[in-house]
Amino acid sequence: MAPSAMSRNALLLAVVSLAVHAAFGQNITTNLPQVEYPAFNSTNNDGAANITTYLIENNGPNGTVQTGHLSILHNPIGQFVVLPPAAGCVSTSNGVTTGGRSLTSTTAAAGNCHVAANGALFNVTTGGCLGNLVSNGVVIQAPGTQNVNFGLRNGNFVIGYVSALEAQGRAAGKVPFDQLTSGVVWLVKGGQNNVQQDLPYEDPSTQTTGTIQDFASIVSARTAIGHNAAGEILLLQLDGQSNVRGASLYDVADLLISYGAVNAINLDGGGSSAFVTDGILSSYPSDILNATVNGQTFSFRQERAVTSIVCFKDRFKIAPSQPCDPTSQNPNQCFNAAGTLSICCPGACPLRPGPLAVCGPAVPPTTPSPNTVSASSPTTVTTPGSTTGAPTGPVVAAPTVAPTTAGPVPSGTTATAPAKTSAPGVAAGTPPPCDPTSGNPNQCFNAAGTASLCCPGLCPQTPGANPQC
Ligand SMILES: *[C@@H]1O[C@H](CO)[C@@H](O)[C@H](O)[C@H]1NC(C)=O
Ligand SMILES: *[C@@H]1O[C@H](CO)[C@@H](O)[C@H](O)[C@H]1NC(C)=O
Ligand SMILES: *[C@@H]1O[C@H](CO)[C@@H](O)[C@H](O)[C@H]1NC(C)=O
Ligand SMILES: *[C@@H]1O[C@H](CO)[C@@H](O)[C@H](O)[C@H]1NC(C)=O
Ligand SMILES: *[C@@H]1O[C@H](CO)[C@@H](O)[C@H](O)[C@H]1NC(C)=O
Ligand SMILES: *[C@@H]1O[C@H](CO)[C@@H](O)[C@H](O)[C@H]1NC(C)=O
C-alpha cells in the first residue's frame, strides 16, 4: 500500500467512462455542513511550490490493480490555484459564443502548473463549467449549486456546501474566496469516511452516471482533493475504467484516510480523470482513441477535454531586488496578488492586493510621482528588497489564463475585479477596473495604454511613458 517513489512518466491516451457531469444548480435552502481548516502557512515560502508526488500501485477489487498518483502540496497558500479551462468557460455575449473544454494538460501548461488534475464536472451538452469557480480571487461563476466544494479563503481551507452569495464573496462576515471549485460527494469529513452520509445532500443532476448511489458505487477512474492534519493539500488521481477497474468513492475515501486526509472531496472522474506533471499527461485515461499507424488500426488511450483544473504552481520566483524609482522618494513597492507586478507607492500598499498592482487607500493627495509598472513576466519580477513594501494581504497567484467570462458578480460586491481586464497591457479604451477596495476610482494609463494604476484623483491630461496620477 505504500506509495512508491515518483518518476515522471508520460503515459498515453484514451476512453470511456463515467460521464460524470452536468446539472442545473439548485440553490442551497437549508444550512448544509461546511468546515474550515487552517492551511499550513510556511514561514519559508519563497513562492516555489513544495510538492511531493508518489506513484500508486494498490490491490483493487476483484484482482484488479489500482494505479495512480498521490501529490502533496506542502505549502498551499499561494501555490494552490483553481484555473478555468484555457479557452475559458463557455460564454455567449452579443450572440457570439466563446470558450469551452480544454485538455487538463493544455490548461496546466498554460498555467505553468507543476502538478495539475482535472477539476469540476462539466455540462456534457454544452461543455459549460458547472458549480462554483473562483480562480485567484476572480469569481468566474458562482451559481451556488448544491454540491460539495473545496476552496481556500484567507489562509483557510473551506470544505462543504457554499451558497451562491458566499461563493460570490458577498456573505456577511466572510471575505471572498481566493480559490474555489465544486465537486460531487464529500468523501472524507473530520477524518471519517463520509460518502454515505453525504449522498442525500448532493444535487444528483451534476453527474450523469446514473443515480447518485451508482455514481458512488461503481469502480471508475477518480480524482479527489483534500487536506491532511498538517494543512497540506492531498491530490489523489486513480486510473480506471467505469465498471471494470479503478475505485468506488467508498474506496477512494478509505485510501485518502490512509494517506492522512482530514477532509476531501471528489472531483470529476472517469474519462476526465487526468494527472499532469509540468504540462505532460502522466495518468492512463479511459477514453479510447482508434488510430491507424503503419496501415493498421490500434486502440490507444486519450485524454479528455474538461473544464476547470486544480493546479500546484510557483507563485513567483524571487528576482534580484529592484528598489523603487530613486527620484520618486516613494519607499513602498506594492505588488499585485501574484507578486508579478509592482509599483512605487507614496503610502501604504493595499491589504488585499488584486490582479493589478495598485497603491493602498491612504495615498497623500500631493506629489504625483513617476510610478513604474513592471512587466507581467514572472522573470522580471521586482521585489520588496530592503524597502518596506512587502506584499501584505493573502498571497495568491495571478490568473495565468485570463478567464473569458466574468461570473455573476453584482455591482457593489466585494469580489475582485472581472477577469477580462485583469492584466495591464490591455488596449486603451478597455480600462481595467480599479481595485474595488481601494476607493480610488480612476484608472490612469500611460500614453501607450499598456500600463495603468488606480488614482485617488484625476488622471494627467497628457499621459507620459509611465502611468501617473
Ligand atoms: C446543460 O446545458 C443545457 C443547455 O443549456 C441545460 O438545459 C442543462 O440544464 C445543463 N445541465 C446542467 C447540469 O447544468
Ligand atoms: C441562486 O441564487 C443566486 C443569488 O441569489 C442567483 O443569482 C442564482 O440565479 C440562483 N440560482 C438558481 C439556480 O436559482
Ligand atoms: C518542503 O516540505 C517538506 C515537508 O514539510 C519540508 O520538510 C521541506 O523543508 C520543505 N522544503 C522547502 C524548500 O521548504
Ligand atoms: C467483483 O466481481 C463480482 C462478481 O463478478 C461482482 O459482482 C462485483 O460487482 C465486482 N466488484 C467490483 C467492485 O467490480
Ligand atoms: C502567513 O504568515 C505570514 C507571517 O509569516 C503572515 O504575514 C501572513 O499573513 C500569513 N498568511 C495567511 C494567509 O495567514
Ligand atoms: C474503437 O474501435 C472499437 C473496436 O473496433 C470500437 O468498438 C469503438 O467504438 C471505437 N472507438 C472509437 C472512439 O472510435
From TrEMBL:
Annotated Phosphodiester glycosidase domain residues: 112-311
Record protein name field: N-acetylglucosamine-1-phosphodiester alpha-N-acetylglucosaminidase
Pfam families: NAGPA
Listed InterPro entries: NAGPA
Keyword entries, A-Z: Signal
GO BP terms, alphabetized: secretion of lysosomal enzymes
Annotated signal peptide: 1-25
PANTHER family assigned: N-ACETYLGLUCOSAMINE-1-PHOSPHODIESTER ALPHA-N-ACETYLGLUCOSAMINIDASE
Positions with biased composition (Low complexity): 369-425
Organism this protein belongs to: Klebsormidium nitens
Region of interest (Disordered), ranges: 367-434
